Each structure stands twice: as C-alpha cells, then as structure tokens.
Amino acid sequence: MDNLQLIVKKYNIAIVGATGVVGETMLSILEERNFPVNNLILLASERSSGKEYWFRGQRSTVKTLNENSFKDINIALFSAGAMISKQYADIAVSEGCTVIDNSSAFRMDSDVPLVIPEINPEALSNHNGIIANPNCTTIVTLMALNAINKYSKIKKIIASSYQAVSGAGQDGINELIDQNKAIVIGQDPQIKYFSHQIANNLIPKIDRMDENGFTAEEMKMVNETRKIFNDENIRISATCVRVPVKTAHSVAVTIETENKIPIDNVREMIKNAEGVELLDDPLNNIYPMPLLAEGKDSCLVGRIREDLVFENGISLWVSGDQLRKGAALNTIQIAEKMIEMGVI
Question: Which one of 120, 188, 192, 238 is at 20 to 30 Å from 31 when CA atoms are compared?
C-alpha cells in the first residue's frame, strides 16, 4: 500500500477554433482548472496556422484543421461555427473522439444531449459521440432559474437579453472599440460587422429573422430551454438585444410558477444553488452588472421581486460572462462531468 500511487487518466484534447475568443478562453480555462491534458492540439483555419500560444509553460502551435486532425484525439472542443461542426464533427467521432460542440449545429438533434452540467447532467449518460453546448444566453438565463424550477415547475418565461459584443466574436469587440474611438475624435463611426452602429446604440435583432417575427437567437432560447428542462409545455417569449458592452450578457426575466413561492425562499434557493451568486441588495446599489460578471465563472442574480402581472410571478435580473459559463467553461465542465460519470 505504501507504494500505491493514484493514477489519473489524461486525455488528448483538440480545440477547434482555437484562435477565436471562445477558443482562447477554453485554452485558459483548461489550464486554470488543471484539466487532465496529455497532449493538446490547437486547430483553426489555414490563415491562423502557425500562431503560437503558451499552455502550462510550453508553446503550442496552431495547426490547420483537416480531415486527419483527429487521429488519437480523445476529446475535441469545437468552437468554430455550425458549418465547421457539421463538416468535421462526424469525422472526429469516427476516429473515436468525443465532440463537445459549442455551435448551434446539433443542439436540437434528438439524439444529441444538450447539457448544462448543473442542471441536466443525466443527459450525458446516453450519447453517440457528440454533446451540444447550449446558446450562451440560454445558459445564463437557466442558471438563474434552475433552482426555482426544481422547487415549483415554471409555466411561463418572458426574457429580454442585453448581449455583449464579444458574443459576436473578436469582430464584434473590434467594431465597438473602433466606433468608440471614432466618436471621441469626432469622426463618423464605420459599420463593418453589425447591421447598425453599436456604439451609443442598441440593436434589437441578433441572428436572422424567422417568419414568426422572432429571431433565431430568440427561438434558440425557446427551444433549448424546453429541451434542457425536459418540458415542452413551458411557454417562452424572448427579445434579444445587442448592447455596447464588451463582455457578459445580462437578462431581465419574468416567470410564472405552478405554486406561489415567497421571495425570501427564492433568494435562499439562489443563494444555495451551484454556479450562481446572489447579489440582491438594491437599496445599497448591490445587483448584478456586466462589469461584475466579467471573468467570473458563476452567474450573478439579483433584483429579485414579486411580479405585478402574473399570479405566481417572479422577476429577476442575471448577468453572466458568456465567454466563460456561456461557452468555454460550460464546454469544459461537460467534459469534466463525463469523466466523473465514466461516459467518455
């Protein structure tokens, strides 16, 4: 027994889309959380090939993604958009790799688990090699609602999101920075990426418009919430808005539950919930804000109050770093949970 050593299995990891803002965040979180990495492969388009990153004191060079990129890879973390995921995910799975995908490509496939580990980890026990990471706004919202839904089933959700430009990637960040600089020096802001000027403005349209008058981003919240909560009867209406904030999405949420819940009980539930932090003392100006959420792993919840419209209604406000819990962190937590469950 004196010579017995605990052997921790290590995994060969690939990050697809390694040079994007989410891919770079994945890299830093793998190191922060001491994920059991054996070999790390960074993959991106040909134009990013050769770029170097530091990981655990060693240089790692970005390679061009191709059909032969997944040999001997155990886990591939995809964050390069739906088209790339649809092109390469099945190839990775055919090589024996488990894919955790951060795009919208597979979220609504019936045989692909859509997972927030704090909410529905049991979905991971039955997968065919691909696991989907939910939309960032869905994650931030449901982290605030999960404890309430467990106590009394939520019947209705009305949500208005205030989404940071980094949710649109580095191009979105650059556009806000460039436009702010132009305004300061008295020049006309140039519009290159967003449909309208984002500096000093709000854009109430994210993603394409559907025929029902809602955007694809808004319908993601509807459909993904039902799948994650495993309840097709929840009635949901969302309005998603791009705001001139660099990082961290915020969402104003009003819900109706089956049973009335005292507000003090709601605060206690959220205070004790995994992955969230209660900031709810508005008389002393304490409430969630994007600046407070940026760089944090937990989602911040506050402004909790009894709603004035719904009979069993609750209104609240949540802010969460969409690059971390809304994307990279949740992806890595899925991998951690699968290792813990022995399903990878």
Answer: 120
